[in-house]
Amino acid sequence: MMIVLVTIVCLLLGIFIFRKNSDHPNLPPGSFGWPILGETVEFFFGKPENFVTHRMKTYSPDIFKTTILGEKTAVICGPAGHKFLFSNEHKIFTVFRPHSMQALFRSYKKTSSPPNDTNILRQPGFLKPEALMGFLGAMDHITQQQLKIHWEGKHVVKANPFTKTLTLSLACRFFMGIDDNPEWVARLVTRFDDVTLGMHSMVINFPGTVFYRANKAAMAIREELVAVIKERKAALIKGVSMRDILSHMIVVKDATGKCMPEAEIADKIMGLIVAGYSTTATVMTFFMKYIGLNPDVYDKIRTEQLVISSSKKPGEYLNWEDMNKMNYSWNVICETMRHIPPVQGTFREVLTEFTYAGYTVPKGWKVYWTVSTTNMNLRYFPNPDKFNPSRYGEGEVLIPFTYVPFGGGPRMCPGKEYARLAILTFVHNVVNKYRWDVLCPKEKVTGDMMPAPEKGLPIRLHPNGL
């Protein structure tokens, strides 16, 4: 009886607060949905892009209101919305991490930078061209090594598990200087998958829920990373020279002269790996799908890559000049990301009340930014369902702010160039070694914020004999 009474009181309180906070003139059109839950279920289980597209048609093509993950949210749509958001970062908007993400990354503090904030990458220049040039040889070596271990001599493989293993191996090498530890990487893949899924979920820490699995995985990852941090500290004390992001985090001091706590370092490393792991793997996976289904596109890519291969000495790795010759290959990647965006969208918090498209959005609300309002829009991309890399070819001009897979403005993804190099290195090696058939062309794409093929994208390999 007491449980029922408490439940009723909570619901009534939620309805009261819900109605009170909704009492504001000239809000965007739309629905807040149910008290507390809002429209979270429709957002995730109906897929975010379908959720947004339907409400754009129902309410407004520019902006609408909703409630997602317990937050009153304005969804700003279209190229004008992209421009408005990118132009007002740090003025009207600031980054916002959903409560599930805050709970998973425990060193998060409201008054400080989020644990997966990539500012740590910008300061020491880890993502500058000269730093990436130095990593490119290792990137090529690891990619070749992983293809040999997992695909050589096999006829049928699954693309998605492989690309996850590859991108996590690259991330461990780049962020932490860890190489040649395949067992450790394999153990982490499933855990990072669970964390990624749980970052946008209801904070219900009960066995069987998405968040419970994510929280359990995050604790296991954190434990492993703290062990690595302790080992690295000991090596640095002995004078071992290491130039990677983990080592930098260990030795860097704040304004008071204190080093970063181990738990915070672990959270930041975990956040950085999450940010670059699944998104890059997603692009690689769906590249395999679309190229497998479009042999004419494959032939053009292979022609481009063979020209690069013919200029290399035996055993010579890819270099920066090689990457700049992969123009058509990158156009193919751009079209892949248009069809299957590796990130559906992100959230911002409103710093000060603003007006957009004639509607008022109060301070403290959240804003959801998404690429899905333009990528498949007939106005911006003729025949949008067709896979057509020539959209990005020489002489073609896209309408500004219609194609923004890496965001824009001050918070444009700082790892864009790292991702480009990792993806093109994979393209070069896989196309030179194989042709392939997609065994389930109509395989269902699952996931909400992070899309993935339901069966892992099984493919049949045909070695090129090089």
Automatic annotation (TrEMBL):
GO terms for biological process: sterol metabolic process. One of its GO terms (cellular component) is membrane. Keywords: Heme, Iron, Membrane, Metal-binding, Monooxygenase, Oxidoreductase, Signal, Transmembrane, Transmembrane helix. The keyword Cell membrane does not apply. Its main location: membrane. Heme binds at residue 413. Its cofactor is heme. It is a single-pass membrane protein. The keyword Heme applies. It is found in: Membrane. Residues 1-22 form the signal peptide. GO terms for molecular function: heme binding; iron ion binding; monooxygenase activity; oxidoreductase activity, acting on paired donors, with incorporation or reduction of molecular oxygen. Residues 1-21 form the ABC transmembrane type-2 domain. Belongs to the cytochrome P450 family. This is ABC transmembrane type-2 domain-containing protein.
